[in-house]
Amino acid sequence: MPVMQSEALRKRYCEKFGVEVIVPNETDKVVVDRIIFDELVRGDLRPESKAEYLRVVEALRAEGAEGVILGCTEIFLLISQSDFPAFPVFDTTALHIQAIVDFALAR
Question: What's residue 107's pLDDT?
Answer without folding.
Answer: 76
